[in-house]
Amino acid sequence: MARPSIKVLVRLFPVLLLAVAGFVLWRELHKIDPNQVRHAIVLWGPGRAAAAIVLSLFVYVLLAANEQVALRWAGARVPIGIGMRNAFIAFALANTLGFGFLVGGALRANSYRHFEVGLGKVAQVTAYGTITFMLGVLALAGGLLLHASDMVYAQLHMEPFVGRMTGGLMWVGLALYATAGALAPDKIRIFKFEFKPPRPGLTLIQILFGAADLIAGAAVFWLLLGAHAPRFADLLSAYVISIVAGLLSGVPGGAGVFEVVMAKLLPQIDRSQLAAAFLGFRLFYYLTPLVIGLVLLGLMRARSAQPKPIA
């Protein structure tokens, strides 16, 4: 009897968390005049809105390009054009629907099976992307903590020594990961799956892709804040924490959770400007790639459903 109850709680937890996040966000923003938010959106202008869309799509192109590296590391022979398209679709759906490992893995398994890419290689590629994100978080968060001023730590109510020690430990974690890859045998076997450990050169590529992904995503939000934006380093710190919190929550797209954490970490930003940036970020960073991904998926399915000519 205990197991079904635990399963129900696990399924309900993201819903409850979304409700709590929605209430906290309402408490933060409900006094805002809608006209002020509308005015903040108008201030974007066509140029800033277009730049935000391009930058958002660039993030997904980065993610798709990183997956091509992962496919070749796993020994999968997928044409780069098809691989880029399928990866874009997988990330667009997974980032918005949540449960990225399961959603992305299922899409990859279905689309790559035509190229004889088995479940073991699909799992490797999916795990590679997840680890890339984690390495990017460690690299950026560690660097930000190491170089943050005492004033920043005062705002976070954290001792500077503790913060810098945490940042140093994050970079030590990166070094240990790279060292483990360098010292590991040529092949590692887990159950019936066999894979090559990432060597230091590949680890560096993962760190660069992971950091670039987060920096570009933060730049989208920073761009939407316009003249009210804080220093980019300050916004990047808040963005990294908020994105991780949203992913850990299990709520699709981190909806509500991302906004609540950002609002708490950026109290100095005008609330109407922040609300407008939230709306723009959801529209440009999540919904626009999702629509493009669904269109690409529909075209791909329609093409595969066409009857093949008889030889």
Task: Describe this protein's structure.
This protein has 311 residues and is mainly α. It has a domain at 45-220 and 285-299. Helix content is 78%, strand content 2%. A two-stranded antiparallel ribbon has the order 1-2. A hairpin with a 2-residue loop joins strand 1 and strand 2 (193-195). The protein is globular and about 55 Å long. The model has no long low-confidence stretch (mean pLDDT 82).
N-to-C SSE string, H for helix and E for strand: HHHHHHHHEEHHHH
Strand segment count: 2
In the predicted model, the low-confidence regions spanning at least 5 consecutive residues are none
Largest sheet: 2 strands, antiparallel
Strand order, main sheet: write it out. 1-2
Number of DSSP helices?
12
Helix content: over 70%
- Report how far the terminal alpha carbons are from each other: 59 Å
Structural class: mainly alpha
Silhouette: globular
Mean pLDDT: 82
Radius of gyration based on Cα positions: 21 Å
Report the portion of residues in β strands: under 5%
